[in-house]
User: Fold these one by one.
Assistant:
Number 1:
Amino acid sequence: MAHRITRRRFLKWMLGSTAAAGLSALGGVGYVTLVEPHWLALNQVSVPLPGLPANLDGFTIAQLSDLHRGLDVTQEDVARAVELALRLRADLVVLTGDYVTGSAEHAPSCAEALSPLAAAGNVLACLGNHDHWTDADVITGALTEVGLTVLRNAAREVADGLWVAAVDDVWERHADLEKALKGVPTGATVVLLAHEPDYADEVAADGRVSLQLSGHSHGGQVRLPFIGPPFLPYLGRKYPAGLYRVGEMWLYVNRGVGLVRPAVRFNCRPEVTLLRLRQPVI
């Protein structure tokens, strides 16, 4: 039986046609494949964290995510994001997973492009699903070899009273929040690196984390006018991009530097983020 044309379906068709026309006006295929995927955005976000020590008011964190070094993302693409992050002179740099796509053979070139970050200061990283789908140990080894610290269900104190913890990949069921937070003193301000953003509901319920930093969704890569992203990945559907309040915890979701196939971006530029931690205004 033929599908009934409902008002809702008709409106979606009309909106989709409008979006397609917009793509054509912007250069169509050329824009979404050659321009926007390489047009890095810098997003600066202030996050008020209750309990943040006074000496850490203004502490800055640069976040890069989802580099996806592979056939569609070159070493030079990663290097451009690194250059932007270095110009920010952040107190800390974090990397929130998915360094390669398709093969762990791309790990050394990705790590080489990231190496200037290690030379400049503290860098902490977690793994993502694509890292496990290739070879998580090879990815970890490549990053470690150039001086980057990969946390897999572990935590580090980065300043007096400020800890960064990271869980291993959630999708692949390697995340262990209890293990990641083991040894973190009560009352410390905790920032958690977790590749998949929808894990935030579980983390917020635990109550010990002030801010979760994630990637994974790429913001959908394509965001249609009036519709939003037509596709989002598993564990990246509830919180696709930007800053969210989840219970008493904050969550920031980075749109990523790279992409996966179809290798297009529209209305969803790749991103480097500068987060500034603030004491709440009373």
Number 2:
Amino acid sequence: MIFDRSCAHEWVHRLLPILEVALGYKKALPVRQLTSMKEFVEKFPFVKKVILDGTERPVQRPQDNEKQKEYYSGKKKRHTSKHITGSTNEKRIIYLSKARRGKIHDKKQLDEENLVEYIPDDVAIEGDLGFKGLEKEYENVYLPHKKPKGKELSALQKIQNRELSRERVKCEHAHGGIKRYNCVTAVYRNRVPDFDDRLMLNYTGLWNFYLDAA
């Protein structure tokens, strides 16, 4: 059976809410916001490590000059929409932030989400240098060592960076699992408010459901 574009568009918008309800029933959807440490422990009693990372997807360049500046990601050198994710060692994504415009820095977006303050102290938090400064605010945060200007990292620091990189690659695998779906890798052109955010939420849920069923 062949669908034309308008028909496919109509069915996606009709079926996406049903998919979201089903994934929620299967407890496959990531949380969008935490309100307390107690809530974290209740939802994720066996999680002992959270790997934080940002992920971006390309969007159509806005025609408005000021708006396009907000969507332009210096990291990706294109216009994007950005999420912060929290993954486990099992590559399951337990947290997904709301979609933000690509210009926002990872650390600023994370601060505005108030996520880290609700993760218990006995849960290790790992991230990349996009969250630089977070390790000064929380004792359970582990980030790579940044090479000093004009100097080299010590042998121990290089070893620690390699070990952290081996751990953090699991979140990259999780992002790769989500982006097997074309809806979250192709340039986003839809103008329905918040629809890009709901797409990312549902496809993250599908990835988690895949892990549960594997």
Number 3:
Amino acid sequence: AQLWRGEALAGKSLLFHAEQGLGDTLQFIRYAPLFTAQGAEVHVECQAVLLPLLKGMVGVHQWHAAAGPGVEHLPPTSFQLPMLSAPSVANTTLTSIPQPDGYLCAPEAERQRWAKWLGPKRRGLRAGICWAGNPNHKNDKNRSVPSELLSALDGIAGVEWINLQKGHQLPSSLEVRNEAWEF
């Protein structure tokens, strides 16, 4: 399909696809309903591990798992758009970022499982934290936070930090809640 560059979408189909990591997909999936509102039938291709969370989002005609075992065959579409290109094509400014009040909602079973795991609050605010990306990424030094910088967060009163990081050692410079949990 041809790259979408802002042409009219009414009556057209758009393949909106992930091109980077999980965090980028979570950040830019917010644009899918914007394209649906313009009249497109939106197909999303993304990382399979994110599908259980993302499928609760409205405005997507069909979801497809990206490369890997069991990959679905993608339907032909009028246009295709890499997710990280969406802000530019949509002429996004700081005041026009789509859905600033939230756009993802975990499935009820997962919300219940996490509520059980988290239990009662230990402090006033809970904040999940990931501080590192893929250590094999060529630009990891600019994408991951050195553990010594995390110590500044420890001084924020009333925050219960929840470890959402996988595959990295916990920072000794920040008190992070880390009971064993599995995805």
